[in-house]
Amino acid sequence: MRIALRLLPGLWLALLVAAPLALVAVMALSWQAEGVPPYSPPWGGEGINPENLRLILEDPHYRDSLAQSLVTATLTAGLCLLLAAPMGIAIARAGRWRDALLAAVLLPFWTGFLIRLGAWIGLLRDEGWINGLLRALGLVEAPVPLLYTEGAMLLGMVHAYLPFAVLPVFAAATRLDPALEQAAADLGATPGRAFLGITLPQLFPAMAAAFLLVLIPAAGEYVIPELLGPPEATLVGRVVFQEFFGNRDWPVASALALALLALLILPILLFQRLGREG
């Protein structure tokens, strides 16, 4: 029984992570073909196909897609972190209001994802509440194009992923010893200097974790850019969807997914190294 319990985490990891990743890698090295599924595996008569990976590296369309996804994900993670750091610290120090404020942060998870996006569409569209308020105040005469813009896409992504950034900062802030800041104040440090010199460095690991927790899923986001973003925003999620279901080119879609995964491994390794050195 004990051996089975020890093996269980490894089995789940193999089933939920290693097996799907291996399947994607196999498809990335396969050939596009007619039929179901629409690819010929490497162990078929045609062998391994390296052209899919080469295409991802050489075609400007796919390179731009990877670049746009990384830039958008980095902006989303950065904005989430700027909001999550003060929010997490404030909630941790809120006393009897802590549970209520934490519940308010988690409130978006209590509603459907598509319902939240529908609410943003209702707010941002030309006949929506925001444009209606602007016209009622006499600030604009014609509707301001808010929907289907880069700003709307970033707004939706920050709103969707903000709780993932708040929770690690909040958890780390609850473990801070307030006596350290008090000791710094007794030694003559101002509150700002005590925060920057004592509190903030202790939160760096949690902030790095918060950044990665947002960056990784945001890089492959499909639904938010599709519903709120501009048509010219060719993020990886959109391109993979088009290759899978539009062009039925599963090998190229898999190669693009592997390329994004490889790029996301780099910041993970960087943060791990900084964590060890820190």
From TrEMBL:
Entry keywords, A to Z: Cell membrane, Membrane, Transmembrane, Transmembrane helix, Transport
Signal peptide: none
Topological relation to the membrane, as annotated: Multi-pass membrane protein
Gene Ontology CC, one term: plasma membrane
GO BP terms, alphabetized: transmembrane transport
One Pfam family cited in the UniProt record for this chain: BPD_transp_1
Keyword Cytoplasm applies: no
Annotated ranges, domain ABC transmembrane type-1: 66-271
Superkingdom, natural source: Bacteria
PROSITE patterns: ABC_TM1
Subcellular location: Cell membrane
SUPFAM superfamilies the UniProt entry points to: MetI-like
InterPro entries xrefs: MetI-like (IPR000515), MetI-like_sf (IPR035906)
Record field: transmembrane: 66-89, 101-123, 152-173, 194-219, 250-271
Principal location class: membrane
Record-stated family: Belongs to the binding-protein-dependent transport system permease family. CysTW subfamily.
Name the UniProt record assigns to this protein: Putrescine transport system permease protein
Species of the source: Muricoccus pecuniae
